[in-house]
């Protein structure tokens, strides 16, 4: 468990910082002799680390990285062929946690990156006010942008 948490926290240091804050809060409660608070924070810290461990241990994630357009190969007749996407599989082992490609770039992917991807692709306006309000807002913004372009 310790090895997995070391791998996870060295890559996702923001969650490691949150765990450190829990430990500091635990120390604070213990110095103030607030044992109820210390027990609550200790329980939260245990659940937090076990949750990260359970979501990471024994899992693997495969992603496909599309090569850039500049990697297209000319066959000599003016035809360009795009190289196949590169598949990378990551798991919670030290060898597969990060992968360094031939260019020297280090890649990493896990459940947290999947979750951040979902959050980043969420349309908040549609989620709060409904799909129609989101479409109306985008349409009115586009109309204003077009009117501003036409005025110039």
Walk me through the structure:
This protein is an alpha+beta fold. It contains six helices and six strands. It has a two-stranded antiparallel sheet with strand order 1-4. A two-stranded antiparallel sheet has the order 2-3. A two-stranded antiparallel sheet has the order 5-6. Strand 5 and strand 6 form a beta hairpin. Helix 1 (2-11) packs across helix 2 and helix 2 (13-31) packs antiparallel against helix 3. The chain is flat, with a radius of gyration of 24 Å. The chain starts with a helix and ends with a helix.
- Give the N-to-C terminal Cα separation: 62 Å
User: What's the total number of strands?
Assistant: 6
| Helix and strand sequence | HHHEEEEEEHHH
Q: Largest sheet, if any?
A: 2 strands, antiparallel
Q: How is the topology of this model organized?
A:
Layout: H1 2-11, H2 13-31, H3 35-56, E1 60-65, E2 73-74, E3 80-81, E4 86-91, E5 99-100, E6 106-107, H4 111-120, H5 124-129, H6 131-151
Antiparallel strand pairs: 1-4, 2-3, 5-6
Helix pairs in contact: 1-2, 2-3
Task: Give a brief outline of the structure.
The protein is α+β, with helices and mostly antiparallel strands and 152 residues long.
Features:
6 helices, flat, 152 residues, alpha+beta
